């Protein structure tokens, strides 16, 4: 088993609490590492857990886990956990995993899951659409589609995401969230392979030649998956195509690093907007 066997890797750092009296990672801890990496595997597939499984009317239950130990990890080691779907049966799915310290394989694991009804715990056939998504992900095919359009086309899904993120999670008053601009601007919504909306944003004209990007929202299970970046890129592309020379946005300070990675730079001091600290950021298109 080699690092190159995996297209998906999850990085973690060994914590003090994970080391045993022998001053090495306690052996059951590796199963937690595998499980943590699997959660990120679903995120990379644009497959938010557990909502995605509800779409297919089932869930995955562990039938068997086999672990083979080759070398030990120590406190503060940086480890990469590789996960891949090795094979899909009628109702079972086998995942192969490896934990690496740089190129050294420390532990490998095989986990057999059974797709089953969550209420009765009886096995079910793996749905064809789910099977296809797994196979396409391992083949490196795109998992997300971003659609750009008007409120009449995308408003239902954009509203659901923004309500979930801004109104319910961040406690922004609903009457501050909705305005007439929604009906006159462009919107972008990212969808996974079976049509579940994951993230949204909108594009207005700030002044002639300057685009204003706003209402950027990503559902909590998908944060860190680059789906927000896909929405941002789609909005910047739309702005550039209509002839805008610059894009401006008001970033929540907690998200400023996200926009910095996309090439935006801060302009001016922090300010309060809807009770949340923001900073203006700009980018030449």
Shape: globular
Strand fraction: 35-45%
Could you list the spans in which at least 5 consecutive residues all have pLDDT below 50?
A: none
Helix content: 25-40%
Domain unit count: 2
Number of DSSP-assigned strands: 13
Layout of helices and strands:
Layout: E1 8-13, H1 29-44, H2 51-56, E2 59-69, E3 78-88, E4 92-101, E5 104-116, H3 128-138, E6 145-149, H4 151-169, H5 174-177, E7 186-191, E8 197-207, E9 210-218, H6 227-241, E10 246-252, H7 256-261, E11 265-266, E12 271-273, E13 276-284
Parallel strand pairs: 9-10
Antiparallel strand pairs: 1-3, 2-5, 3-4, 4-5, 6-7, 7-8, 8-9, 10-13, 11-13, 12-13
What does this structure look like?
The chain has 285 residues and is α+β, with helices and mostly antiparallel strands. It has helices at residues 29-44, 51-56, 128-138, 151-169, 174-177, 227-241, 256-261; strands spanning 8-13, 59-69, 78-88, 92-101, 104-116, 145-149, 186-191, 197-207, 210-218, 246-252, 265-266, 271-273, 276-284. The longest helix has 19 residues, at 151-169. It is globular and about 60 Å long.
């Amino acid at each position: 088993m080699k690092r190159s066997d995996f297209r998906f890797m999850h990085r973690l750092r060994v914590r003090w609490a994970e080391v045993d009296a022998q001053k090495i990672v306690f052996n059951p801890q590796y199963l937690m590492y595998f499980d943590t990496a699997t959660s990120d595997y679903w995120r990379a597939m644009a497959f938010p857990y557990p909502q995605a499984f509800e779409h297919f009317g089932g869930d995955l239950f562990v039938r068997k886990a086999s672990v083979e130990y080759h070398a030990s990890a120590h406190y503060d080691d940086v480890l990469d956990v590789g996960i891949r779907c090795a094979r899909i049966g009628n109702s079972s799915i086998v995942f192969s995993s490896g934990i690496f310290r740089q190129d050294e394989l420390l532990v490998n694991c095989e986990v057999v899951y059974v797709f089953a009804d969550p209420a009765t715990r009886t096995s079910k056939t793996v749905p064809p659409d789910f099977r296809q998504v797994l196979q396409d992900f391992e083949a490196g095919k795109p998992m997300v589609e971003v659609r750009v359009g008007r409120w009449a086309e995308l408003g239902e899904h954009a509203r659901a995401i923004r309500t979930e993120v801004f109104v319910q999670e961040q406690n922004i008053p609903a009457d501050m969230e909705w305005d007439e601009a929604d009906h006159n601007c462009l919107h972008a919504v990212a969808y996974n392979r079976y049509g579940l909306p994951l993230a949204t944003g909108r594009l207005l004209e700030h002044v002639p030649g300057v685009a204003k990007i706003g209402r950027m929202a990503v559902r909590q299970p998908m944060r860190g998956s680059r789906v927000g970046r896909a929405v941002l890129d789609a909005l910047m592309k739309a702005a550039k195509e209509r002839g805008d020379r610059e894009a401006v946005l008001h970033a929540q300070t907690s998200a400023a690093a996200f926009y910095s990675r996309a090439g935006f730079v801060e302009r001016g001091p922090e300010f309060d907007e809807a009770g949340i600290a923001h900073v203006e950021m700009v980018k030449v298109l």
